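User: structure tokens for this one?
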Amino acid sequence: MTEYWFRPKRYGYGATPVTWQGWAVTLAMVAVSLFLRLTERSHWALVALLTFDAVGIATLGIVCYRKTDGEWRWRWGDR
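Assistant:
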């Protein structure tokens, strides 16, 4: 049995977290990205930050897509 961590948004495109696992994944991505931004001291740190952001956002998008209950499509308020 698959437990879904996200549900499709009511308006727009994408998904929103609905379980603690979904919130944990989302907040972990934000926390690590914020930590890297605050500790950035050199040009190489900036490159590492941008690389992490690109890979992290892509990975978060894949996890969200696979763990969403329903399909991703543009929505105008209907379920």
